[in-house]
Design brief:
single chain; mainly alpha; two-stranded antiparallel ribbon; 2 strands; 66% helix
Length: 154
């Protein structure tokens, strides 16, 4: 996660930053499997870490609403189930990859993450949402260096 974020990232910029640069389409060694795994790992991490800040019920409600919104554009998410307090949180993704392929699955999951960030933006504002999401990252990720030190201290 060495890519720099703008002062107030768009939901898509923040989602792609969280997923990681290794999933960028033009990245050397890009594979559909890597993109799907990175996106799934991001969901698990963001759900777990964000739950600490907004509670597991609030976080589950946020992700449930994001899934409903993302299903409108990506009906293949119809098979995804969210299981609060479960590992993994997102269930049914292996079947989607088998049916629709890795690239389509990764794109749909990214759209769901973007929808979740947009919802959080509407609830608490874009700056606060970005701060909250970035603060929820592990200490190792924070040590990688965020572009805005104020954000890391907030």
């Amino acid at each position: 996660m060495s890519a720099m974020l703008p002062e107030t990232p768009t939901p898509r910029e923040l989602a792609r930053y969280l997923i990681g640069p290794e999933t960028a389409e033009d990245s050397p060694g890009h594979t559909a499997q890597l993109a799907t795994l990175a996106t799934l790992a991001t969901f698990e991490r963001v759900y777990r870490d964000l739950s600490r800040w907004v509670g597991s019920g609030g976080c589950h409600a946020l992700f449930t609403r994001a899934l409903a919104e993302a299903r409108i554009v990506h009906p293949l998410l119809g098979g995804v189930q969210l299981q609060a307090r479960s590992q993994p949180y997102l269930q049914g993704t292996a079947e989607i990859v088998d049916t629709h392929g890795g690239p389509a699955t990764a794109e749909a999951l990214e759209a769901m993450l973007v929808a979740m960030i947009e919802l959080l933006n509407r609830l608490i504002g874009a700056d606060m949402a970005a701060t909250l999401i970035l603060k929820s990252l592990s200490q190792a990720a924070r040590d990688a260096g965020f572009p805005n030190e104020k954000r890391a201290e907030a």
